[in-house]
Write a structure and sequence with these properties.
Elements (H helix, E strand, L loop, with lengths): L3 E3 L9 H12 L5 E3 L7 H17 L1 H16 L20 H10 L4
Parallel strand pairs: 1-2
Length: 110
C-alpha cells in the first residue's frame, strides 16, 4: 500500500487530529511520500517549510529526502522504491503508557 502524507498536516493546518495521525504515520514508517497540497501562495504554501522542518525532527534528514524526492521519483519512473533509510528522530517523545501517565499527572494540582 502506498500512502502520501500532506506536509501541512504536520503543522496542524488540518487540525490536531490530522497532525497526530500524520506524525504517527511518519514515526511508524507507514508513509511512502510526503508532499505539499500547495496549489498557490496561500496558507498551505506557507506551511511547507515548517512542515518539512517538523518532518525532519521526527524522522531525520535522510528519510525525509526519500519521502520528498527519491520515492516520488522512483514512482514516476515506474522503478522500485529504495530501501527505507533508518528513522533518526532528533526529538525524543514518550509514547504509550508513559505519555498517558505524564499527561494525566500533569493535570493534578498540588
Amino acid at each position: 500500500v502506498l500512502l502520501q502524507v500532506t506536509v501541512g498536516s504536520l503543522v496542524g493546518l488540518f487540525g490536531k487530529p490530522a497532525q497526530r495521525v500524520a506524525e504517527l504515520l511518519l514515526r511508524d514508517d507507514a508513509a511512502t511520500v510526503l508532499a505539499s497540497d500547495a496549489h498557490s501562495a496561500g496558507q498551505r504554501f506557507m506551511s511547507v517549510s515548517h512542515g518539512l522542518e517538523r518532518a525532519a525532527s521526527l524522522i531525520g534528514q535522510e528519510r525525509l529526502r526519500q519521502l520528498v524526492h527519491d520515492n516520488p521519483k522512483a514512482l514516476l519512473e515506474s522503478r522500485p522504491l529504495p530501501a527505507p533509510a533508518a528513522i533518526v528522530a532528533s526529538e525524543q517523545e514518550e509514547r504509550g503508557w508513559r505519555k498517558a501517565f505524564q499527561r494525566a499527572t500533569s493535570r493534578i494540582r498540588v
